[in-house]
Design a protein that fits this description.
Helix content is about 70%, strand content about 5%. Helix 1 packs antiparallel against helix 3.
C-alpha cells in the first residue's frame, strides 16, 4: 500500500473509531443525553427495555462496538460500509422525526455527512482490499 494512502486510511479509521467510542460512551452511557432521549421518545420507544438496558444505552453500546470494529478490522471494508449506511439512514430518520435538530449547531446533517465521507475516504484509501465497486 502506498504510504500516503496507508496514512490516510489509518487516520480516517482512528478518527472514526474515536468518534463512535466517544459518542457511545459519553452522551449515551455516561450522561443519558436529553437529545438522545428525545429522539427515542419521538419514535415512541421510551419504555422499551432490552436485557435491562434502555434504547439509548443499547445504542451507545452498539456505537462502541462499531468503533472498535472499525479499529480492529482495519483490513475490512464492512465496518466502514455499515458506517455509511447508518449515517445516511439516521440522517433521514432525524430529518423526519425531529426536523428542528437540523437548525442546531453541529446538526445531524453536518456530523453525519462528515462521518459518512470520512468512512468513504477510509474505504478508498484501503488498497489491501478493494473498495466496493460503487466506490472506485
Amino acid at each position: 500500500m502506498n504510504r500516503s494512502l496507508a496514512a490516510i486510511n489509518f487516520w480516517s479509521r482512528l478518527t472514526l473509531g474515536i468518534i463512535f467510542i466517544y459518542q457511545g460512551l459519553i452522551p449515551k452511557l455516561m450522561y443519558n443525553n436529553a437529545t438522545e432521549r428525545m429522539l427515542i421518545d419521538a419514535h415512541r420507544l421510551t419504555d422499551l427495555q432490552l436485557g435491562g438496558m434502555g434504547i439509548v444505552q443499547l445504542a451507545g453500546a452498539a456505537e462502541i462496538v462499531l468503533g472498535f470494529c472499525i479499529l480492529l478490522f482495519h483490513r475490512s471494508a464492512w465496518p466502514l460500509l455499515i458506517t455509511c449506511l447508518l449515517m445516511l439512514g439516521l440522517l433521514i430518520d432525524v430529518m423526519m422525526v425531529a426536523p428542528a435538530l437540523m437548525s442546531e449547531a453541529f446538526n445531524p446533517l453536518v456530523t453525519n455527512l462528515a462521518i459518512f465521507f470520512l468512512a468513504v475516504i477510509g474505504m478508498i484509501s484501503n488498497q489491501r482490499r478493494p473498495a466496493p465497486g460503487w466506490i472506485s
